[in-house]
């Protein structure tokens, strides 16, 4: 009963793999690995989608809004950790397990922060840019020739 057209990449998969929201083929980031020690590398994005040319930074300061998204993700992640920690180890004040959870959660949050920062950019952009079937079907080389090469038969 899925309403997905064949060939249309899944919304959440595309978002999680940080593909262009318009064609869902091009990557948003030049480097697929978010875990770098150099901070500038984390946000090393293309200005435009390498596949369909969609501009990523829709306006100057566009990425400021991602702060809220990344905050929400951090909270969701913490809640998720709280639940599995509680299920596996139980949480009580008596044996300091709350503090252990806080420690574990803090460390995990710091570790995945680069990925969360990137993901929040992807999610944010997906709010504003919609999937466009026609751009997804263009082959990248169609942009350059402009069909002129079809006439010399």
Q: What's the quick description here?
A:
By secondary structure, the protein is mostly helical.
Number of E-state strands: 0
Reported for the largest beta sheet, the result is: none
Contiguous helical run count:
6
From the N-terminal CA to the C-terminal CA, the straight-line distance is: 45 Å
Radius of gyration: 20 Å
Mean pLDDT: 82
Q: How many domains in all? A: 1
* Helix-residue proportion: 40-55%
Order of helices and strands: HHHHHH
Beta content? under 5%
Query: What structural class should be given to the helix and strand makeup?
Result: mainly alpha
Keywords: Membrane, Transmembrane, Transmembrane helix
Transmembrane segments: 68-91, 98-116
InterPro entries: DUF983
Protein name: DUF983 domain-containing protein
Write up this protein.
With 153 residues, the chain is mostly helical. It has six helices and no strands. It is elongated, with a radius of gyration of 20 Å. Keywords: Membrane, Transmembrane, Transmembrane helix.
Identify the notable features of this structure and list them briefly.
membrane; 6 helices; 153 residues; DUF983 domain-containing protein; elongated; disordered C terminus; mainly alpha
Strand-helix topology:
Layout lengths: L10 H6 L22 H4 L23 H24 L7 H32 L4 H5 L4 H4 L8
